Amino acid sequence: xxxxxxxxxxxxxxxxxxxxxxxxxxxxxxxxxxxxxxxxxxxxxxxxxxxxxxxxxxxxxxxxxxxxxxxxxxxxxxxxxxxxxxxxxxxxxxxxxxxxxxxxxxxxxxxxxxxxxxxxxxxxxxxxxxxxxxxxxxxxxxxxx
Length: 145
Ligand code: ZN
Fold this sequence. Notes:
Elements: E1 8-17, H1 23-34, E2 39-56, E3 61-67, E4 71-83, E5 86-96, E6 102-107, E7 112-124, E8 130-132, E9 139-141
Antiparallel strand pairs: 1-7, 2-3, 2-4, 2-6, 2-7, 4-5, 5-6, 8-9
Bound molecules: zinc ion.
């Protein structure tokens, strides 16, 4: 069973992030500045180090893994919605080391940009606000069922 709402495309932004900045915080900041509360984000580039999460479904907590090395952002895909009334970026990343071996997970603060090119696509539509979902313990979208 699925739940969805219809959205329509608004403007698309292409940009880059400054070396040394925090990947998740900068993307969130960008959305706040442009007042984007609904949309999608993608990015490629490289990081100097990363912090990625894995949600342990049993304990219902995120386990974070710090990767203290240079890595390529081979993919970053995410969405933008509202949490506590503010733009919230939920993104997952796949990061490759020098051998092309990949790590992946839930993007967390503490991922340091080396270079990053991003695309943010803003949408118009009913706002999606996150709230605690009892079944999963995650802050999921509140949607009419
Ligand atoms: Zn996630």
